[in-house]
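Changelog note: in this version the structure field was regenerated for every chain. One regenerated record is shown below for reference.
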Amino acid sequence: MRITIEFLSDGEIRLPIHYNHILQGFLYKNLSDKNYRKFLHQQGYQVKNRKFKLFTYSRLLGQFKMYPQDNEIGFFPPFKLVVSSAVEQFITDLAETLIKSDFNTMGKQKAEVSSISVHKKILPADKIQIKMLSPMVAYSTIINEESKKTEYYSPWDKKFTEIAGENLLRKYEVLYGERPANQEFTIIPNGMQERKFSRIINYKGTYIKAYAGIYWLKGNPELIQVAYDTGLGSKNSQGFGCWEAVEPGKT
């Protein structure tokens, strides 16, 4: 299930350039069911030794201005946020809370929710072109006797698809209790644009290498649907891996 939240404000909303944590905090704050919010924040849905929040969200969408000298970005109303989850309770609770609120804060600044629209489900397909609404991440943690290192991968590296595909299979297993018979899944970059699409995001002091841009997804339509609902790749609840389908003839 997916919604787009549109915000209005009296003027420009100034945020840090790296504002993922602000959006994450906004979403958690606007879950009215305290027990569910605590479960999601502290535990999440688990399969074996892996935990998933099963939601993702876009960057803020709309007109903006960069203020590099202040390390800030300003958004001009109206601006939008796309939020997606495979768990209806998450979206329903969030939407109902926002509708009932007189006003909300975004980075300690007042921002009114002017509308919430519900997206139609994507049509099942075994190949689809997508555009990232927030950059996607795939990584592995390398541990030896002396250190622990996080290695990030590029979609131009087959390791990226392997990690993102395994991540999807685990999410599918959380949702349906077993893995699908058809486990085919591939991410195909749209041309040689690795450097152009690369992003470095500072999330609470941790630098994460992620990738924006246009790609093709190919494989089991059920896995592609899970990727749409929960996010592609890792760290989805931190604001990574949200995407939309590209309409034919548009990029």
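Spot check on this record: The chain is about 25% helix and 35% strand. The longest strand covers residues 109-118.
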